[in-house]
Amino acid sequence: MLLLQLRATLLALGALLSTSVTVAAPLPAPTHFYPYGTAVGDRIAPVNDDGSTGDVPISVKFPYVDEEHESLYVNTNGVISFLEEVSQFTPDAFPLDGNRRLIAAFWGDVDTTRNSGRVYYRETRDSDILRRASREVRQAFVRFTRFSATWVFIASWHRVTYYGGSSSTSVSVGLYEAIAVGSVQ
Ligand SMILES: [Ca+2]
To answer: Which UniProt keywords apply (predicted)?
Structure first.
């Protein structure tokens, strides 16, 4: 079966800065993604359908929309959210109404009860990751020539499948990540 991989990387600096999605096959080389998994210190989100990690404290005040956030939610359905969990399984177009503030890697009806695919997450100040995040932000946003990341949050949806899927559909979605980057600038 042809392996389909999805990658969505979103960089945020106070506000939404960039979203990119590529689709290719087979599964990517690890260097295409930020390191993820328990071996690098990730936590695993609870197995669920339309749930989340619950409120995850972060060690920075992350500016997003109109306030600085000290916690976030990693939602099974493919988004990082602030203020509250997102159980909605069908995506809405941005900009979002109400008080919703999301970083969407791939907003869809993921269900981790269906197979062994899992959602991983962590915050990090690893120097290699900070250098990489700084470089990618500067490349994507050429006006930020002096951008220097001081904190990164990585959420990775690895081999998750959709609501209604099964272990035989576990490769239908390979991996996608959402990256939040903080800077002192
Ligand atoms: Ca779901």
So the answer is: Signal
